[in-house]
Amino acid sequence: MSKTIFITGAGTGLGKGTAIGLAKKGHRVIAAVEIMAQITSLREEAEAAGADLEVIKLDITNKRDQQLIADYDYDIFVANAAIGEGGPIAEVPVDRVREIYETNVFSTLENAQIAAKKFVEKGGGKIIFLSSIVGVVAMPYLAPYGSTKHAIESIAKSMKAELEEFNVQVATINPGPYETGFNDRMFEEKWKWYDPEKNFTPEKSISSMEQMLDSQFDPDDMINKMVEVIEADHHAFRTAHPQDTEDQMKQEEQQNWDARI
Fold it and tell me: How far from the centroid of its chain's Cα atoms is residue 217's Cα?
């Protein structure tokens, strides 16, 4: 059955592909993008793909834009928008981490609260938070971003338990590393402050982690999985994809219990 789906961060990457994919399946999709310049490009891509999208400008950190989440009627809210940055957490300027939290945690929560209130009033609905493999697996030099996804994991778990009595579903989707450009840009951000001549973290140590960029997955695979989960009436609370990502997340949680310092 056709559903109405509101998705943030639909101007790029997995969000864009998922919005188009859901529309091609016959769902009414309200695709929110961060800046005006993304509206035309997304509309053109959707038209070329034979998908009918309603594209709006919505910066999730902007209180006036957030009002649009309350104005629309929808069955599913997908909190997908996020920003990222890599670098050694022992040295990254905290104001840069604070900015990531403002988008990925505080504004995302504000958005989800608006959707939650709507769903409680109408007697049902579904909220999906886009988390990440690093929402569970803590990786070196990814903590500025990964710690925000750890926070989203906790928010989602608590919200799921709190909203069950109102017939509101809550879930997470946890992608592994997909080649959308997001991960590449995230690692590049450190060069705005990191100086190997001044910082104590060796550049070679960071570079060894960045080798993961050479083995990223085809984003179409993740987009197909996101479409499948978002439109489904029932599915797992947490969807990690691909299977290697799920396995790694499960191993990480066990290793944390076994770890010693």
Answer: 16
Would you say 85 and 92 are in contact if contact means Cβ atoms under 8 Å apart? Answer: yes
User: Please, are residues 129 and 157 in contact by the beta-carbon 8 Å criterion?
Assistant: no
For residue 4, list its beta bridge partners. 28
CB hemisphere CA count around 145 (13 angstroms) = 24
**The predicted structure's pLDDT at residue 27:** 98
Single pTM value for the model:
0.96
Q: What is the pLDDT of residues 64-74, one digit of tens each?
A: 999 999 999 99
Q: Can you tell me which residue has the tokens 């990786």?
A: 139
Report the pLDDT value the prediction gives residue 216, as an integer from 0 to 100: 96
- Rounded to the nearest 10°, the torsion over CA 114, 167, 158, 228 is -80
Work out the angle at residue 188's Cα, subtended by the Cα atoms of residues 199 and 206, and round it to the nearest 5 degrees: 45
Give the Cα separation of 235 and 171 in Å (integer).
Answer: 9
Cβ-contact 82, 9 below 8 angstroms: yes
From CA 196, how far away is CA 198, in angstroms rounded? 5
Is residue 155 very low, low, confident or very high in pLDDT (cuts 50, 70, 90)?
very high
Residues belonging to the active site: 145
% of the chain surpassing 90 pLDDT: 95
